[in-house]
Amino acid sequence: MSLLHHDARSEALAQLSCFRGEFYSCLTARSDALFELADAVLCGDGPVRSPAELSLVGEHRRGHGGLYAALARGRIDAGRLR
Q1: The pTM is what?
Q2: For the chain, which residues score pLDDT lower than 50?
């Protein structure tokens, strides 16, 4: 692996980490559960047919009850997200 490739990969991971941190800061209630829900949506194997299916994706470590609680009571600061 060339040094240039290693630097580019490190930079990409740093940008991804920064993005994830900023996204997490937009979640104002039920932050952890909403963050895992977003990961599950992005890492799932195709279209989402029901919220309960997302609780089966490995990135969502909570049960389906936590998923529904996040959807019902979670909050996102839309202005900050923009």
Answers
A1: 0.79
A2: 1
